[in-house]
Structure formats: structure tokens, C-alpha cells
Here is the input.
Amino acid sequence: MFRVRLAAGNDIPCIGLGTFKTKGQDLVFKTIEAALRAGYRSIDTASVYKNEVDIGNALKTLLPKFGLKRDDIFITSKLGPKDQGAGKCRQACLKSLENLQTDYLDLYLIHWPGTQGKKPEDQSNKDLRGESWKDLEVLYKEGKLRSIGVSNYEESHLKDLLSNCSVQPSVLQIEYHPHLVQTSLVDFCKEHNIHFQAYSSLGTTTDDNKLLSDATVLSLAEKYKKTVAQILLRWAVQQNIGVIPKSTNPVHICENIDIFSFTLSESDLETLSNLDTQKHYCWNPASVT
Here is the structure.
């Protein structure tokens, strides 16, 4: 499994299991079991996914079954937008630690630059996320968080954070795929040693998924004799961008991690990048002050 050294000094696997919308004890258990068996060593969750307790229970039961220890697994969780601000952030993080039954998290992210209940243009969003970051810096220095980062931050949000932090963010997690290529943001992260991690690499979770049905992507899948998902994930990791594909299907879970046995040509990488339409299939944080 390929790994990337983060600014904080710990290593993150290039591919992890996304768990958005994966809910219910039985489904979570079966999904985590299939992922560990397939070789996943990174699990991505968030407080707003409401599955931390089930993931914690699953890992407690399954890690010994696979001969694994806590340190063999990279666990990421995220601060919910309702918990922005001094004190609230700390308590939310400690609750995630309790839910996941672990003394530390490998990565903890501020999930959104805004605060629940406040308008995107509200100037207090900036202050509240700044307060949250200060809480995370303390938790990091206490050893409860091995690395800290952000999700859905635009370049303006990152610049503000970098000018006011004592611990720099290790990761930016944001929507990124051939229909939404964010080259300047990727370059900014490289310049500041922030690992760029993509979510929604396969487009939407709805039936009307224009990325999975894109004719160019389909033709490349045929050319390489790979699944459409494998082509899209390979496109990202070949740019040194991390991925966290979500699936509860054991077959797809196995297929999605099998992306290191082939290489896309430079021309095919460019062909995929040229599909860019700046289409957000998820949330667009650009309006948050």
C-alpha cells in the first residue's frame, strides 16, 4: 500500500475507505470486514455521518481477527459544522475519540469552513473556524490527534489559516474528479506541503451519475480493461492525490483498491483532465466567507 508522509510526520495511505451514508451496525461491520480483508488500512468517517460508534465497535472486533493492531489502521474523523468554536470543537473531538474507542486519531479535519445556522457570508464564520483550529492545535500537542487538517477549504480559507496557525494543516480533503479539476488549489497545497485528498472521486452517489457514464471515461475503461471506478481513482493517485472511495459492495471494495497494478499514459491523464466542467456534485464552499 502506497503511503504519503504528512507534514505532521505520520504516513497516510493513498487510498482509504469512505463511509459517508454507511449506517447501521450490520452494514458497517460487513463493510469494514470486507475492506480490511481487501487490504484497506485507512478508514474515513465524520461526526455528521453518525456511524462512529458502529465503526469503533467493528474495528474493536475485527482488528484482532485480521492480526492487526490499532497502530496498523489510519483513522480520520471530522468536526461537524454545529460544533465550530472554542471549547465546542474540543468536546466534539473527544466525543469522536470515545465513539471510535481509541486514544488518538491519525487525522482530524474541520469538515466545513462555515458554522451550522450561520449564513455563508457571516463574518463570524472566520472567527469560529479559527477558534476551532486553536482547539485542534492543543489536542495535537496533547497527542490525541496525530495530524490535523481541513475539508472543503478554498484557497482563501487556507491562506487565512496559514497566517494564523502554530501547527500547519497536514491535509486538505475536497471534491476532486475529472469534471471538477482544481489545479490552482492542488498547486497551492503542494507549495505549502498540504496533502491533497479527493472525495467524490467517482462523482455522485445518485443513479444519474454523469461521471461514471461519461463516454470518454467508459472508452478508457475498455482500453485498459479496468472498471470505470478504477480509471477515475488511478487518475487521482497518479497525480499524488489521495482517494477515499465509498462502497458497501465487497466486490467494488476489492476493485477500488486494485489501482496500483496499471498506469495511465500521460496523454490519457490529460484527456481525463480535459473533461473539466467545474461541476460540483457535492457542496461548493466558495460562498463561505
Summary: The chain has a mean pLDDT of 96.
